[in-house]
What we know:
Chain A has helices at 2-12, 14-38, 41-46, 48-52, 54-82, 84-92, 97-137, 149-176, 179-184, 196-226, 232-262, 265-268, 273-286, 288-322, 341-349, 391-400, 461-464, 485-491, 513-552, 554-566, 571-610, 616-649; strands at residues 327-332, 354-364, 387-390, 412-416, 430-433, 436-444, 455-459, 468-478, 494-497, 504-507, 511-512. By secondary structure, chain A is of the alpha+beta class. In chain A, 42% of the residues are buried. Chain B is globular and about 50 Å long. Chain B is α/β, with parallel strands linked by helices. Chains A and B meet through helix 12, helix 13, helix 20 and helix 21 of A and helix 2, helix 3 and helix 4 of B.
Amino acid sequence: MLTKLAIRNVKRQIGNYLIYFFTVSLTVALMFAVNNVIFSEALLQKAEIFRELKSGLIGISVFVALIVAFVLGYATSFMLKLRKREFGTYLTLGMTRKNILSIFVLETMILCAAALLAGMLFGLFVYQGLMLVISNLMEMEFAFAAYSVKGLVLTVVLVCGVFGLASVTSALYLKRVSIYQLIHGDKVVDKQVKHPVLWFEIVIISFAAILCSCLVFYKTTEKMFTQGGGSGGMLFGSLAVLAGALVFFHIGLARSAVYLLLKSERFCSRGTNTFTLRQLSGKLRSNAVMAGALAFLIAFAVILANVSFVQKVSEESTLDQTYPFDINIVSDATQPAPVSEEQADKIIRSFVPIEEKMHYAVYTTKTAYLYSFTRWTGDGYEGLEDSIMAQSDINRLYRALGRDPVQLDGGFKILCNVPQVTSFDFSKAKLEIGGKTYAYTGIADDMPYITYDYFIAVVPDEAAQHLSLQSNGVAYTLKNQKFDAQALHDALSYPYTTSDGAYTYDRCDYHIREYGRMQRNSNTAVFVTGALYVSIVFVFLAMAILALKTLSGLSDDRRQYSILFRLGAGEREQSKTLFWQTFSFFFLPFALPILLSIPTGMICAQIMRMAGLSMTGTVYLNTGLIALCLIAVYLLYFTATYLLAKKTVVRSTL
Amino acid sequence: MNNMILQVENVTKYYGSGSVVTKALDGISFSVQKGEFTAIMGASGSGKSTLLNVISTIDRISAGKILVEGHSVADMKEDALSAFRRDKLGFIFQEYNLLDTLTVGENIVLPLNLRRIDAAKTKAELQRVAQTLGVADQLQKFPYELSGGQRQRAACARAIIVNPALVLADEPTGALDSKNSKILMQTFSLMNRQLGSTILMVTHDAMVGSFAQRVLFLKDGQIFGEVVRGDRDRQTMYNEILSVMAGLGGDTGEENLPQTAFEQNNGVAGGGDAGC
């Protein structure tokens, strides 16, 4: 009998469950797609990083499932409250709480099975779409991706876990709630707020704290890039302040804005303004913490999505600097190379013809004189030696790269590849080589990665002759044709045992640009996929909570709007009132995260600038696109909720 | 004819469709004069509430005509009906129907807000009505902080603040005890006599009905009879209502008619209300 009742209830409640079902199915589809990506044989074979990050990605999937479980638990309790009168009636008819719980759990199971089925069916397509995106990011040819049994099992386990946890929340509610509360509802009554002005001050302070956290985040990243200082603790601290400030901002706003507006007699005497404000005040006050938490979820999604795109853009932009030549090796001049140059040439030629080879030398003064002008000096930095290159060597490499030659003006110049080196003062540095003194003539931070050093000094050739050879470098230019970079990398690798003898692994001293590009593409694919997955799920869940929260209050709203109707508020006036009520409730946790897109975009662009990258326009474009996507999701949920609410609440003549 | 507020002409209302049709109102005709206090009585299912719903334009009639101040409500479009309810009608319901999220003061001025009356005038009107109906001390409170009687008085204040052509009351004492019912009826009398409100009230309680100047009795969707108070006192009216209701076979409400506080204060003997 209970099963029959549960099935009938699900059929009858399908309208109410629509948004819930849609969100859960979408989340299941994403989970299914990501879990299949994690276990994709094609990716595991082609990209080492997927093997390395597999457990991390599973961790993300479980973390997302936990968040989903928490949110669905919250959402399920709304669904329960939506039907509390019905359950109250069951209790008065003599059903036990166990019976009711069985009905609800059965309904949830039906819904879970339906969402799992629909989600996985949709997930079949989402997975192929995701594989298409990943293949593009990794420049792999897209082929129909096989589905993974492990991915399927993980999805089923996670979804069942999510619904299990959500059912526990409902069970706890049903166990506690009284019949009176079920039938008459929790009489949430609005009370006069104490100290609205004080709460408004808290809003202003919280807003200031939000701005400060953005500023601290920005300054810390700036410091990290320019001076190498700035701790991760400061970054996490600023994020924690942001989270706290967002929560207090929303609590304060809920307790002040409406009451301050209610003080305006002129505003309140117009139409249904007072009604709208009062409707909002109760909702906002009881959901202020939730609004703050949702705002943080959305803000987190905005930040994560932006950072993932910055990572992608920066990986693309830094490739030329990190891998200036097709293949490059810098080997210790004092030790024989594990793979000799002759052997390497033979191996490389077996994959792709070599067009040009350039040899260059890196010298040392056997002192750390130049390091004494940096922060890498003193205790802990023993053993460092200044690296020096001859002007002719560096200019030969620069010419090959199409760069302007380095001019020394009779002195020496510093070249570096980390921007923070430019913050050190070398102006008083003088190199004494071969009886001559070479003064410092300037610094450039665009040195390509041709040595292992953060910075080198470039001296005239006659000075270099007096220095000791530190390492030899070879830069290869290859014929422009496709080759298997992974196989070349493997062929140039040799077994390397760590100095303490603990580990042995395959190591390759040759920096193969194509291999590096593939690795970066894989990194980007993993990072972008993970970040977007978390962001999309967070945004959809946040919107679903707002929608369900609105819908769960419809029975109360219906009664209130019915009174408005009788008092002469026509369909249009009621619709307008409901629109502003729903819009304001939806907009509150959404407004600030969207506004936070602006500082987020600025910080990302600044990070790019500080990293010496010029693609800030792309960053702003990405930020704009992310904001637009968020607005689209917001409009989708808001419109669906408003239309459902309007259908239920707004009354016209029978 | 100029004093005619409401004219109900041969009104019929059917519910349902096909073979399952219920005739809730069966060719009802009556009229209400300006300043009149009329009650409609009848047993459950007699069509009282349906009649009130069609007059208040929240339900449509199947046939006939309803004119309020000479305007046919059946011909009005949706927006015009809303404006009509807002401008011409005042409502008092059994369950008070105060918005529990609004303060008492905000509830009372809501009809003025819907009319977009300016803030200063709204404030003045609120003071006037609240003073008259004795709810001036309750304006800052929320409905849950008031007793049933106080809530219903607040609902009365909301109903009359726009000076409507017609106040419609649907079982206004249905949720009140006998003491508060009498106090509310005194308020109705006050609204009727001092503020000139025209009231059409649906009730099944003979004591409540005895406060009206005229009582129409409904049975099976038709007007079964009518009692007009005229110069008679309330006790006589009450007895007559009881006898009509006995003829109808319906609920007669109270057996005795004790003297109300209002009547005691105004020196009316025998529980009657000679003033009406």
